[in-house]
Amino acid sequence: MLSLFGIFLGLGLLMYLALKGYSIIWVAPLCAAVVAFTGGLDIISTYMGPYMTGLVGFVKTWFPAFMLSAIFGNMMETTGAAKSIAIVLTKWLGAKFAIASIVISCAVLTLGGVSLFVVVFAIYPLALAIFKEANITRKLIPGAIALGAFTFTMTAVPGTPQIQNLIPMPYFGTTATAAPIMGLTATAVLFFGGLYYLEWKRKKHEANGEVYSEPDAAHAAKAKQNETLPNVFVALIPLVVVIAVLNTLPYFVKFTEEQLAAGRSTNEFIVYALLSGIALVSLFNFNKRELLLKSLTVGSQGAIGAVLNTSAAVGFGTVVRAVPGFADLTNMLLSIPGNPLISLSVAVNLLAGATGSASGGMGIALAALGAKYLELSRTSGISAQAFHRIASLSSGGLDTLPHNGAVLTLLNNTGMTHKDSYFDIMVVSLIMPIIATVPAIILAVLGIY
After folding, report:
1. How far does CA 228 lie from the centroid of its chain?
2. Could you give the CA distance from residue 169 to residue 226 in angstroms, rounded to a whole number?
3. Residue 339's CB: how many other CB atoms inside 10 A?
4. Residue 288 in contact with residue 43, Cβ under 8 Å?
């Protein structure tokens, strides 16, 4: 019982320190030390052993994907390709569909493999312009960007190259297109439900006399002089190729048992996909090679922090799995009434909320419980694809609590406060994902994946 208490104490401390804004890189090992001590393990040997094994294992598996994704996103931004795509989409839809145009612009970029952080910076100036034309309050800009970048293209759309859709693959032996019907159903709930809410909120603001107002100088969009943007169709090609390579390779490349034992895995597919995208961006923008070289540096450096944050959280999960109380925790989670997919969703949501990170929370949950849920998949008759999709969907729920890094970046970049816009972010990227998980689980129970 002391060990089980230590797990909850470690998780509580993790959430508290994350809410205070401290770096999870030192918070996670500190909380792991609490778990180890109450579990009767030596702190230093646990840190050097299970904790570092989990951390290094995640880095080994996922650093190439984090790095190439960051480089690809930075290249799409610095070459103007991301902006070119967004400008055309917003023009096509126009001011009449201002909110939808921002959501769809964000969705196209994130679905093509562009980092959601890059999308926040690339889309904001366009959102400002189109909201001004439509005379819509700026308070709704964060909600619109969050809906397009933080929800269905991150966790629900089958085949999306976002990391939250890829992390479950090695745990369940699945591909990025796992459980397509469940994913598309959740996508519809998130997209249409989120748009309905934002349009309802827009009308409510207008009824209260709240319309567009100019931002302060620090958050006004600054137009670049003589900026030459690539043709939109050329800009779209790398995005399409990334998705195509990621989702067609599994049909042509099959690993043998010997290759799998030697360390080969489906994680390689995202590496090939992103390398293809990077090569095409470089080819189409050879005249901007100095910017591309800078993107290699900026993207590589940015990836280090991102992958270490997640791997530090995974290390915590590895320590949890090593203490005696883990058996009690597993029994508690698996005793949640109903389908085991429900307990998986609860576990991932709670841990994503505790860490303030979708990938971090899912990493902890799957590092600790992934093997157990794979076993349940085999014994219960529920497809491993369903476990993949529910884990992915659930990572995008409670992760967007007020202390989430992406939320803070979004509010800071748009000049909005939590009071101004967090409720909208919460509805579209926290409440709606939890709601969208319900029909996905129902479909799984019916054997429809």
Report:
1. 31
2. 44
3. 18
4. no
Give pTM, 2 decimals. Answer: 0.86
Which value, in Å, is the radius of gyration of the alpha carbons in the chain? 22
159: left (phi over 0), alpha (psi -120 to 50) or beta: left
In angstroms, the Cα distances linking 186 to 116, 192, 274, 387 are 19, 10, 26, 14
Q: What is the pLDDT, as a whole number, of residue 393?
A: 97
Residue 339: phi, psi to the nearest 5?
A: -60, 145
Neighbours of 249 (CB within 10 A): 17
223 pLDDT exceeds 60?
no
Cα(345)–Cα(366) distance, integer angstroms: 11
Helix 432-445, helix 180-207: angle, nearest 10: 150
User: pLDDT value at position 62?
Assistant: 86
Neighbours of 141 (CB within 10 A): 28
The answer for residues whose C-beta is within 8 angstroms of residue 293's C-beta and 6 or more apart is none
Q: Is the dihedral of CA 291, 293, 298, 300 positive or negative?
A: positive
Nearest Cα residue to 325 out of 2, 33, 3: 3
Closest by Cα among 367, 362, 67, 415 to 216: 415
Of 440, 432, 391, nearest to 180 by C-alpha is 440
Tokens coding 210: 């709240």
CA-closest candidate to residue 171, choices 366, 427, 349:
366
Residue written as token pair 């729920």? 397
Amino acid at 255: F
Burial bucket for residue 337 (CB in 10 Å: 0-12, 13-18, 19+): exposed
Question: Given a cut of 80, is residue 267 above it in pLDDT?
Answer: no
SS3 letters across 33-52: HHHHHHCCCCHHHHHHHHHH
Give whichever of 246-255, 318-327, 398-407, 439-448 has the largest mean pLDDT. 439-448
Q: Residue 397 gets which letter from DSSP?
A: S
